[in-house]
Amino acid sequence: MQEFLMFETPLWPRILQLLEYNPAEPLTLTTGFFLVAFMLFGLVYTLVKGRARLRTLYVVLVSLYFYYKLSGVYILLLLFVAISDYLIGRCVGGRREKGSGTAWFVALSVVINVAILVYFKATNFFVDVVNNLYGSGTLDIESVVVPAGVSFFVFQSIAYVVDIARGTIAPLRRFSDYLFLLSFFPKMFLGPLVKAKDFIPQIEAEKVVVTREDFGRAISLIVGGLVKYAIIAKAVGTLFVSPAFAGELGDSGLVALVAIYGFTLQIYCDFSGYSDIAQGVALVMGFRLPDNFNAPYHSATITEFWRRWHISLSTWLKDYLYISLGGNRKGAFRTYFNLVITMFLGGLWHGVGMTFILWGLLHGVALALHKVWLSIVPKAKAVGADMKPLWRVLGTLFTFHIVAFGWLLFTAEDMGVVESMLSRIAYNFSFGDFGAMVESSWVALLLMVVGYLMHLTSRNFDETLRRVVVRVGVVGQWLLVVAVIWLVMQSNLMLEAATGVAGGLPMYAAF
Amino acid sequence: MKQRECSHRIGWFTMLVILGVAALWFVPEVELFGMQLARVDIFSELRQNADDEVVEYEADIERLEQELASMVEVDSVVMVDTLPVLPPARYEWLVERETVAPRRVLHSSDLEAVANRLSVAIEDFDTLEHSRLDNLVERLALGQGLRIAFMGDSFVEGDILTSDLRAELQELFGGRGVGFVACDIPFATVRKSVKRNSSGWSAYSVMKPKSAPQDVADKFFVSGYLAKGGVGATTRWNSTTAFETLDSCTRARVLLYSKDTSLVRVAINDSVVNEVEVAGDDRVREIYVEAPLIEALTITVLDGEVLCYGASMEGDCGVTVDNFSVRSNNGHAIFGTGATVNRQIDEFLGYDLVVLQYGLNIMQQGQRKYTNYRQQLCNMIAYAERCFPNAVILVLGVSDRWVKGESGGYVPIGSVDALTAHQRAAADSTNVAFWNTSLAMEALGGMPQFVSNGWAANDYTHINFAGGKRIARALASAIVTPVYETLKAKEDEEQRRKEAEERLRAEVQQRFELQSQRGIEIAVEQEIIHAEVEETVSDVVAEEE
Q1: pTM here?
Q2: Residues A188, A282: contact at Cβ < 8 Å?
């Protein structure tokens, strides 16, 4: 007990230090800091939640603080984007009412936002290329740090202006409401992107309503998300996938293949787990964020995959990029071209590099080929639900492997890694390595099996979990959350002991 | 039915969660399904943190000399018969066993792969013609093994770097076990190279001597941590299999201090138990155990009160590497350790090599003047030399470090080379050995490469196990290369000698054969002559007849 009460003396300087922006300890929804901050936030939120304007102002201020804690001075960038698109949105809305053209204003917004994105995403790459070509030091520019979540608020902001121009929504009257849409803290770091049309009514609603069902669902989302994000993805990645990719587990082809399956699970658990947590946190506050994933590896076709994977981004790409390019209204060839170019840009967005470009092209070409297939084989179906069971199983396995080998491109540092992994699988594959692999990495492999089983039964699993969590009541929910947090902390400590590194960010934080 | 509105739950539900998680601090650190549960602490960021309250020790070599002199006197007094005999310093408990691992016979081919690694060499500033390092290299070449005290800061915390150095050297030169592990320390850590469960102790750190009672504060060993425990205090050290050579130990030592008589129970593998009555004395004592197989070692205080430093698990011969990492220590904490304590423990353990890895915490961006630190480092070296008189001192240069620049990107801290130069100068002026860590890291691509390879944390300062492994491989190569060269030279010499001998032998043989050939020829000639004579004689006889 005495040891438990041993805190720093005096405590205040340390607390003030913790409140400051610290690049070494970024704020994510799974930190102890966030837990304590959220408690304090919640105590006041209870008082203001019934009054829309006060609530909005309060949540905006807290969100801005969280963004400062996450990204420091880049809060100015967030404010700049908010102000510029709020004003542009109002102009666009005004001109629409008068019936005059809005194209120039939309273009202005797009140019500003894309310029921001390109600056932060491509500068480092460009400097590297020039310095490699003309000798180091030709461009003496320090490497640029990408502000957290910049893609998400930039995309959100473009969508807002385009929506106004298309007449889907009316421009927001209050700046604070727009700032809320842009900066709402559960989704600030990794999305999901929300549709302004669905989200604005929630901001403007006089009262927030969280039913007991909602609360239970939120807890089940947070708990399930924590297990996926903080235990399965982290452990599988740290204990198996990273060392296997680095060649530290030997050059067995079996290990390489299982590592690709491992990464396929890891990226899903990491990203969807974090999205679930964000959804859950928003839901206890009474805000509904859209689903970002829908059991993506159940997809029987590549088209279906993109309807189930990172739904908010693929919807955004479809609504604001693919459709703006002309979508499927300009003939078959343009449709295929638009698909490929959309996915190519989607790949480029993840990072300027050969591997991401190839990844984007792979998916673009696969989507186009699937469209061709659908048009020449009349019996072919677009989604698994319409297929006969055998076809569906075969389709699912086929799609899964395309996606999995796509992830190999996605995660490999350079093409050398891709080559080495593929040649290991092609030339050094033996089931005889199975025993040795299980012996050396059984914890990670066991978690992989658990993760895939959870995903295989995900409809039932999520539903059952939700029902159980709602039924056990608030005491049961409390015990469950505490138990899962304890598991997460144990797993973190074990991983730290195994690798010497603590914590880490969600993988998608890099984009 | 009207649904109840639950959004008011946010605050108090989260508060209950926090309280619940905080209470988990009290969950015991037990083992479950072979996995060690660690203590979870949601307030870890608010705990007393050595970073903020760094104690400044002053080097006091004079006091050190006096202390050591008085220690020698005590020892010499023992020899006089008229004085009461001192209680033993070492309690031995030898469990019967059949075989003792033999000393390894080394061949240069065993070391060739490691020695041929591209690496930065150790610079030896010893002015003796046959330096202490040369001596050490020779002993290693003879297979005599080596005990290393690796003193460092958070850079090697958790056995980063040292665990791989140990594994590699034990692989080459023999030896088993994790070496010295503290009895208890005042904050939670995890080490994959050893499991330790301790309870009932009050643990103190040399970095916070003010929080330690007076009778503890002057008895720190360079390990940096000391645990004080009364009846019931217990610690269990358990070997792991995280590295090949960690298990199957055959020797163990417990280092403790017992001012008044105390009773300590020692258990091997939770089955073989012995009780040791430690007579009260003002010296550090060792309980020394030998057994066929030591997987786990447990000590429990049954009576009295002891200060326990820790325990060491080892093999019969070969290499032992002790990790003495103390967070935020710039090296000056050695001045806060007891000189006689260090010397006494050195007499038990016999260090051959003392590594000083410091400096990461004192670097400031762009600063290039470290004259004061250099002076301090010289004092540290002097202190270490006096405490470990038979050891070679090896100063490691500071590691590569990058910091956030004004525009947000990471830039070199700009003081690594300067501090490294000062550290080398300190080694030079005190005639000890030096190894340039940042140069070795640069050869591996430097800090940005470490971060992008996942070998270092995103703070561009702390390496992780994967990074430690790379540096350990480079350092091992630097240690092994001269041994390899010595062996190679010896073997070449041997080979030349053998060849010469063979040549000589062949020559002798040839000469002998020549001679004997001539002998045969003579014999044949003689025989022919004989035959001819006989023939002539018989002819003559026949003619006469």
Answers
A1: 0.70
A2: no
Q: How far apart are CA A227 and CA A231, in angstroms?
A: 5
Distance from CA of A501 to the nearest CA of B (A): 6
Terminal CA-CA length for chain B: 160
| CA dist., res. A262 & res. B200, Å (int) | 43
Question: Are B399 and B361 spatial neighbours (Cβ–Cβ below 8 Å)?
Answer: no
- Which chain A residues touch B458 with a CB distance below 8 Å? 24
Q: Are A120 and A144 in contact (CB under 8 A)?
A: yes
Q: What is the mean pLDDT of residues A171-179?
A: 94
pLDDT in tens, B189-227: 777 788 888 888 888 888 887 778 888 888 999 999 999
Q: Does residue B415 contact residue B367 with C-beta atoms inside 8 Å?
A: yes
A282: nearest Cα among A47, A455, A63: A63
Nearest to B215 by CA among B280, B256, B259, B255: B259
pLDDT over 80 at A413, yes or no: no
C-alpha A146/C-alpha A309 separation (Å) is 24
Answer yes or no: are the C-beta atoms of B380 and B331 closer than 8 Å: yes
Could you tell me if B404 lies within 8 Å of chain A, comparing CB atoms? Answer: yes
For residues B314 and B292, what is the distance between their CA atoms, to the nearest angstrom? 12
Can you tell me the mean pLDDT for A348-373?
89
Per-residue pLDDT for A276 more than 80?
A: yes
Q: Kindly write down the DSSP assignment for every residue of B298-351, as one continuous string.
A: EEEEEES-EEEEEEEEE-SSSEEEEEEE-TT--SGGGGGS-HHHHHHHHHHH--
Secondary structure (3-state) at A201: helix
Which helix (H) or strand (E) covers residue A316, if one does?
A: helix A311-316
C-alpha dihedral, A201 to A207 to A213 to A218, nearest 10°: 70
pLDDT of residue A162: 94
Q: How far apart are CA A495 and CA A498, in angstroms?
A: 5
Q: For position B78, what pLDDT does the model report? A: 41
* Structure confidence at residue B339 (pLDDT): 87
A288 Cβ contact list (under 8 Å, min separation 6): A198, A202, A282
Which residues in chain A are closer than 8 Å to B40, comparing Cβ atoms? 486, 489-490, 493
pLDDT above 70 covers what percent of chain B?
92
The first and second tokens of residue A309, run together, are 């994977």
Catalytic residue list of A: 350
b/e B1-13 (16+ beta carbons within 10 angstroms → b): eeeebbbbbbbeb
E strand spans, A266-373? none
Distant-in-sequence, close-in-space partners of B66: CB < 8 Å, separation ≥ 6: none
pLDDT, averaged across chain B: 86
Let me know: does A231 contact A487? Beta carbons within 8 Å.
yes
Residue B143 falls in which region: left (phi positive, over 0), alpha (psi -120 to 50) or beta: left
Quick check: A143 contacting B, CB < 8 Å? Answer: yes
Kindly report the CA angle at B390 between B389 and B395, in degrees rounded to 5?
A: 80
Q: In the numeric block, which tokens belong to residue B405?
A: 């620049």
Token pair 């698109």: residue: A85
**Peptide bond connecting B448 to the previous residue in cis, omega within 30 degrees of 0:** no
What is the rounded CA–CA span in Å between residue B472 and residue B466?
A: 10
At A508, list the tokens: 């998608």
Q: CA B71, CA B84: separation in Å to the nearest integer?
A: 17
* Residues B463/B437, Cβ–Cβ less than 8 Å: no
CB contact under 8 Å between A211 and B6, yes or no, is: yes
CA distance B203 to chain A (A): 10
What is the interface size between A and B, counted as CB pairs within 8 Å?
167
Of A155-159, A208-212, B81-85, B87-91, minimum mean pLDDT range: B81-85
